[in-house]
Specification:
Helix content is 38%, strand content 20%. The protein has helices at 11-51, 118-140, 146-168, 236-239, 276-303, and strands at residues 58-61, 70-77, 80-88, 102-105, 115-116, 196-203, 206-216, 256-258, 261-274.
């Protein structure tokens, strides 16, 4: 099906009319994108509000489902964990005398280090950068320059996408590699034992705790980090073969450099707790990412350019 102009006009004049029509359509789209940017700003500000530190915070249960290995809770306020009381019953972590479990209490001392969720710090910064892009696109730059708005939308898309992926988590996320970012043992009172790795991260907008008991690979050379009593990570009953076999895990054959020493993981426990506020932020970021993607594609079509993958 074709479209004809009646009465006919010269070809050169037809080309000029088509170009003028595209120019009017482009200007209309650029003006409508200003409304889109205002809506995006509102959504980003809602994400900021959900990440703000507000008392009393979010108290989340951290307990193993099918065992008594981990029982406890933590309280998140903004990007920090401000309270925590967890009790462990691990095969390779003997509890203190006269105690049925190994306690992990977050220290309340004024001089104690803070337990900060670096992924949330990164997400907050990316959202703030997104808001800066929206403000520049609205107030500072030329809102009628298609190339400028196209570049700003690409930048906005990248920031929002990275924020969403950071909440999704994984080894490549900020602080995702547990052996590279051990927490300060003095966060807890009493301090975290040197043979225990405590790694708290964000995965799929949920709080994810990995606990690992460790032992050095070179057991013939005791160091100040691992005492001679804990070189193997096993109790006397386990060394004699009288205790239950340790559960298998996906890191049993791997080596890691942890706090300057090569170690292996003896026992590994994974506990997850859904965080409603973070899940709301991730849902909003997904919707915002989609809206920016639609805006980019629409602008690319009217400009007559190919949109790069993003």
């Amino acid at each position: 099906m074709s479209t004809a102009v009646w009465p006919p006009i010269p070809h050169d004049e037809l080309i000029k009319e088509e170009e003028a029509s595209l120019a009017r359509e482009l200007q209309w789209l650029l003006e409508s994108l200003q409304e889109t940017l205002a809506s995006l700003k509102s959504g980003l500000e809602e994400c900021v509000a959900l990440l703000q530190p507000r008392e009393p915070g979010s108290t989340l249960v951290l307990s193993s489902v099918r065992s008594e290995s981990v029982k406890g809770f933590v309280t998140r306020v903004g990007t920090r964990i401000v309270k925590g009381d967890i009790h462990l019953r691990l095969t390779t972590l003997p509890p203190p005398r006269s105690s049925g479990s190994y306690p992990l209490h977050l220290s309340t001392a004024p001089t104690a280090p803070s337990l900060i969720l670096n992924q949330l710090v990164s997400v907050r910064n990316l959202i703030n950068q997104s808001l800066d892009v929206v403000d520049i696109s609205t107030w500072t730059g030329d809102a009628h320059d298609a190339n400028f708005i196209s570049g700003q939308l690409r930048l906005l898309f990248d920031f929002i996408q990275e924020a969403r992926q950071t909440l999704k988590g994984g080894d490549e996320a900020v602080g995702g590699r547990w052996w590279e970012s051990p927490i300060d043992e003095n966060i807890f009172n009493p301090p975290l034992p040197p043979t225990l790795s405590f790694h708290l991260s964000i995965s799929e907008a949920s709080l994810l705790l990995h606990l690992r008991t460790l032992f050095p690979v070179n057991t013939g050379t005791p160091t100040s980090t691992f005492s001679t009593e804990s070189l193997t990570g096993l109790s006397l009953r386990q060394r004699l073969g009288l205790a239950a076999k340790l559960p298998e895990h996906d890191e049993s054959d791997q080596f890691f450099v942890y706090r300057g020493q090569e170690v292996k993981v003896r026992e590994k426990i994974r506990v997850e707790s859904q965080d409603p506020s973070l899940m709301a932020v991730m849902a909003k970021l997904s919707a915002l990412e989609h809206r920016v993607g639609v805006a980019r594609r629409s602008l690319a079509v009217v400009m007559g350019v190919e949109e790069d993958d993003g």
